[in-house]
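Schema walkthrough. Field components (list of strings):
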Amino acid sequence: MDLINSIPTIEPNGEPSVLQIIQIIMLNFELVNPVKILFGKGEIAKIKKHIPNQAKVLLLYGKGSIKKNGIYDQVVSALSDHAIVEFGGIPANPEYSILMKALSVIKNEEINFILAVGGGSVIDGAKFLSSAALFEGEEPWDILTKGIRTEKGMPFGTVLTLPATGSEMNSGSVISRKETGQKLGMGGPGLFPKFSVLDPTVVASIPNRQLANGITDAFTHVMEQYMTYPIGADLQDRFAESIMSSLIDTAPKLIDNPSDYTIASNFMWCCTMALNGLIQKGVPNDWAIHAMGHELTALHGIDHARTLAIIAPRHYAYFLENKKEKLAQYGERVWNITEGNIEERAKQAIEKTESFFHSLDIPTRISAYTNDFKNTAEKVSTALESRGWVALGEHKAVTPDAVKEIVEASY
Amino acid sequence: MDLINSIPTIEPNGEPSVLQIIQIIMLNFELVNPVKILFGKGEIAKIKKHIPNQAKVLLLYGKGSIKKNGIYDQVVSALSDHAIVEFGGIPANPEYSILMKALSVIKNEEINFILAVGGGSVIDGAKFLSSAALFEGEEPWDILTKGIRTEKGMPFGTVLTLPATGSEMNSGSVISRKETGQKLGMGGPGLFPKFSVLDPTVVASIPNRQLANGITDAFTHVMEQYMTYPIGADLQDRFAESIMSSLIDTAPKLIDNPSDYTIASNFMWCCTMALNGLIQKGVPNDWAIHAMGHELTALHGIDHARTLAIIAPRHYAYFLENKKEKLAQYGERVWNITEGNIEERAKQAIEKTESFFHSLDIPTRISAYTNDFKNTAEKVSTALESRGWVALGEHKAVTPDAVKEIVEASY
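Field assembly_structure (string):
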């Protein structure tokens, strides 16, 4: 139950009914996304207009890079007429115990607006705080373990400093807790940011490793919503293919020259559109790669995006029969693969995908990250099973046994 | 001033600054779209959950086709617990004098929620009523002539019965007034529907002529936001190309079999995505085709979509030099035109576009619609000039003289 909540759907992501699968038709859906995007150089200055004058603002950030790259100064300058309390130090996988300290600050200081300045982790942390600040139960961790939907949260906005997760334009969040070894999801209509500033000039100061992770994360987000089975949702398919093609074109240029505004703009917008709810509507979704990937992060501390690059090629190879039509379509439209039958084209598409990750200097084997992987497959499978999962994926075909084989093939 | 408001932008559509044009970079933008989409067969039944229980609802519709195709029954059945007052008879170009009668009903009956059941005209009419119902001035027509932005309107929802205009997911509206011969636009953040139901089964009962118009309208909406000059907004370009490619694929199948749910679904979603604000953000927009087209409708009563099909090929031929890069890119990516230099490919792309309209049985010459066109070019040019226009289009290069030549070339 935990992990399905970690999929940042905007509304419960309706599984296809049996009837719909048989008919192969677009699935019914609800779509709403009220986030106001402020995109472009200099837009940070506008946040003062979007935060109530009388608000007392918690300025939430990470490890302090915003103090080096000038973003902190821009934010503080924009909010010179607002009352601000700072809370820094949110780590890469937003940690519950640290967020609980921020929650104390919110209560003690009577904060009524949260401004997240950072990447997906800081924004996800702000979403937890938004929910926890108005939570009436005893133990805010229940929001995650009991899958409590947040209908109303404390209002918050974001200034994105690291394109990757799409959290700036969706209502999902993933929170980690070291004490219990858990990494759980939460969400709900109350967790959309009021606004998100996307200023592409922030990209110039991001290290290459994080840029490569961002591209890989966004790319895999698209694949999770696309690489299932064809149901004739032509426009959703083309939009997904557009984001993947654009990321592939942009990636080498971005690594080469992250200061180029045009390249940075496109990278940033692709990452947001990859997981703002649009392309997932009306189509089956997978998300099993994320489920397995989260466990690899929990077990070995591998960067989230890199766990996806490890699992994706093996997952698609294992489920080739189920996914070959979409893999072949992706191969043709995104990679120009036109030779061979459907199965052969599907296999070439998987190879192209793995090569793409390699081109970003991202190893796609667990053994590249740790020597201690002998029991990883067993552990991932057991961990997922212990969370009540019987099976994952668009066909519920990712059983514990399948998980074990996929992870083992990833060594 | 009127016509620029008739472009259904969500926020004022920032013209590129000189600096931005020189640098050829993605333009700054704001994007927000709070409309809740309920997509799929059977979704009409859900509207009761989205209209307050105590609301007194004005049920607004057109010429009564909804009473023949079963949609009226579904709506009334869904609202069996709501107080409803009906107002039918909204014509194809929503007419001010008729809307003023509906406004009297709203006031007399103390209506507080409007439900538009129809196509773009009924929805545009509902938007006018939403604004006029809360308007504090003497004369609601001022909203249109004085370009008054609607910050807050009476809440309204829509049940779409004719995919084409995209009005169901944007905040713009175009209203006609026979008495003065005007066709003017209005908009503002208060004019987003609270919800819009898109049930593809409604498509089955739409006559071929309206289906062809819908495809042409949506297709031209995309072109107006795309066919300008390249600024490196790669994802927006690809999204626009996706909608155009999908409409081209879908068109013949739709005309052949509008009862096919998959085809109808894709048609419907393409029309909505063509003008919900997404693809216009960050890029220059044209909209001169619409400006000229509106005048042809006003002068000769030609269907809106058909005026666009008449003007577009001539507009692009006239501005070939300004637009050739995007025309060639469109030609290559959407029509697979790879032979010839940029100018030659651009010309082929224009020919393909006109042939596409012809394939839908849409004539692209004014003479196919009226014999009385001798002074049309002069009249269109004068009419646009009389509205205070000096020049239209992304470069402000569509001067009155250019308008005259383009319309004359369309005879």
